[in-house]
Amino acid sequence: MDAPKLPSLFNLVALDSVDSTNAEARRLAEKGPEETPEGTLVWAAEQTAGRGRRGRTWVSPKGNFYASIVLRPEIPLKDAAQFGFVASLAAFDTIGSLAQPGTDAQTKWPNDLLISGRKVAGILLEAQGGAGPDAVPDFVIVGVGVNLMSYPEDVEFPATALIDEGTTVMPPEFLEGFAKHFLAWTRIWVDEGFERLRKNWVWRCGQVGKEVEVRLANETLTGTFKDLDDSGALILETADGPRTITAGDVYFPQSSDA
Known about the structure:
Blueprint: E1 11-18, H1 21-29, E2 40-47, E3 65-71, H2 77-80, H3 83-98, E4 105-108, E5 112-115, E6 118-128, E7 139-146, H4 171-192, H5 194-203, E8 211-215, E9 220-228, E10 234-238, E11 241-245, E12 249-251
Parallel strand pairs: 1-2
Antiparallel strand pairs: 2-3, 3-7, 4-5, 5-6, 6-7, 8-9, 8-12, 9-10, 10-11
C-alpha cells in the first residue's frame, strides 16, 4: 500500500491483512501508552474476521477502507462514547470531499453512514477499563469501515459502495482525508463541546422528523425521530410519549431498509 500523509498526531501501523483492525488495535493498546501511544492508527488492506456492532460480521475484502484508532482520553466513559460522532462526522466530510457532486450522503444513528438510503460505512467503538459510565477508560478504540470498491449483498441492511455511486476512491486517499477530518472534529469537540457536534450531526441526518423503528434488546419501538439529546442519545416520540434511547438499531418501517 502507498504510504499516506497523515497529521503528526497519528502513528500509522499499516498491514496487508489482519483478523480485525479493532482487535489488533486492542492488542497493541494493551501494551501500554509508552509502546502504543494515543493516535496509533491500525490500517489494513483486508480483514479476515471483521466485526460490526453487536458482534455482526463485517465482510472485508481488499479495496475497501478498514482502520482503527487508539485513543487514551482523560474523560469518563460516557463522554468517550461521543468519539462515535467525531468519527461519523469525519467520515461524512471525507466522503463529501471525495464523492461526485450531488451524492446523497447522510448520517444514521447511532454510527452508520448512508448514501441514497443504503449503508456505506460503519463505526465501532470499544473501550477497556472503567467500571461505570463515570470511570475513565484505559483506552478507547474507534474502528471505521467504508465500502469503497465493493459491498456485501446478502446482508440485513441494504448496502452500497462509493464506486457504485459514481466515485472511485483508493484506501490511502480516504485515510488521508479521514485522519485530517477526525483531528479537526476532535479539536472542535474539545474546544466547543459536544453541542457543536450534535447540531452538525443532526443537520446531516435524513431521519430526523420521520417515522422509524428502533429495535432494542427486548422490545421494538416505533415513533418519530425527534432529535438527539445533549449526550447523543436518540429522542423517539412514541404513542406513549417520548423515549430516550442510548443503544439500538434504527430501521425504516415502510421497508426493510436500515
